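Tutorial sheet, problem 5. The two components below are modelled jointly, 250 residues in total.
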Amino acid sequence: MKNVFVHITTENLNPAQALEFLSDPGQGAQTLFLGVVRNNNLGKKVVAVQYDAHETLSSKVLYGICAEAQEKWGEDLKIYVSHRTGKLGVGETSVLIGTGSKHREFAYEASRYVIEELKVRVPVWKNEHYENGESGWLRGHALCSHAGSNTGGRNVHAHGAQ
Amino acid sequence: MIQIELRLFGAFKDLGNGGNILLELPEGAGLSDLRKAFSAKISECDSGFRDVSLVQDSAFADEDEILGESTVIRAGAKLCVLPPVCGG
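Model answer (structure tokens):
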């Protein structure tokens, strides 16, 4: 897919690689968004987050989201999306989204679109590990249309990339 | 009866050994049959996982796409259960 890079990885995310992908002498705006693991959620002290993903489906959904963004903001919009899996400590980057466009307005809007859609459509899950030794999977957004109202709407337990 | 393999993700990884589980379904089973069989399997497990309501809020998929509610499940199918997502 032209101008789009999507990656689900266990490796550290690399902003420099994203900037290299976005580099284009014809474009005057680049954004980088980094979602990082924070040390608290819903009043609990978080020490790490384990990310689980259905990798092939996650990549497919992300490509679809990027295609939608290019429909909205033009085929010359460049998008770099990389999501970590595995256990991440506080401060580590869990998701990296880069956008490049001729104008900053499109780059900002596309970046926001990709992260908001990612959080409710991409099959990724988080298991938080707390200071007291307990852990818990965060309840998020249901992918199935028949689901009950307790998971309806946007992810209310979002962690990190807010 | 047919047998299928179900790959576990997210909170369902706390079930059993965290890998895949085998389920038996009636011939011509759909997703409602799959949810019923999966819920029963959870109740049988001694893993301590008891959030059966999560099954109702979960989607099912193969390697390429999320299955529609009208899907008829084939014998030997390898499927995935996708609880509500929260990436980022």
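Marking note: Helices of chain A lie at 15-22, 55-73, 104-121. Full credit if you identified this.
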